[in-house]
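User: structure tokens for this one?
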Amino acid sequence: MRRIVFAIPGDIEARTGGYGYDRRVLAEFAGQGVAAVHLALPRGFPHPTAADDAAVGDIFDRTVTADDVALVDGLAYGALAETTIAAIRAPIVALCHHPLCLEAGLSPARAGGLRESERRALALAAHVIATSAHTGETLVRDFGLPRRKLTIAPPGTDPAPRASGAGGAPALLAVGSIIPRKAFDLLVEALAGLADLDWRLAIVGGTGHAPQTVADLVRLIEAKGLGGRIALLGELSGEALEAAYRSADVFVSSSLHEGYGMALAEALAHGLPIVATTGGAAGETIPDSTALKVPPGKIEALRNALREIIVDSALRTRLAEASWLAGQALPRWDETARIIANVSKAHT
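Assistant:
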């Protein structure tokens, strides 16, 4: 089997779902004896400068040979120039977490440009791996990807201890980088209408990706008088993140779109009852029996679901039991890596 050169833009240690996926796949490759290396690309993607694009061309030219397979993370691949992609000597396997143009907060012009760029890029790939069936269907339907060139490799989830809860007022947990797509502002707006109830919310997620979104969220929390009830904990990992899940009573997601929803899968693994919006693949990642599901962007529907789960302990218990059972059946990371390795092997 050829060497897999896994090209990833920016900081691979960043605490996002996409980077977490990439880290774990590389680690599993090593454990499975797959010949693979990490190739670092500039951090400007998915909005590269001309210099970034030129640098990528140079990096691939120096590092990747015709005897390799270029596995390219979609955060960079969908924004690369056609000429840069065409110059890559190795067969290309593109990894798409979700289409770049569906990121919230983009101008119509930028979203349109990314849609066209990604469509052209995908056409040049030997094969495409999507992280969910929903994302895969989107690529086929909206980007013209032939179904024969598509494989689904959902994220793995590690076994986890069952959450024990806070032992007092319901402790709500939300996990995700503070960026427009995660719509934490809508979650705050929904909870502002539930000030009569006893609850606490912890938001775990990086604050360095969209500083203005973070500043706006902090102001909104204070304006709604919720500073003592909503805590922004920043990025957590390891035991600190595990403790956040373990001490939660309810997991909440207000995201506008998810390519899969790895934090949702983690909530299932910990047996947490869930309130979640259904944007993108999120509605498929969590079974109906585990969650109260609401349409994305609908504050009143989110507020009603939150009220219901906060006041009804029997409902929380029922959803938690279904969540725990569903969590035991989630795919594991060794299988994710094996799928990707097999696709790469097929294109040697």
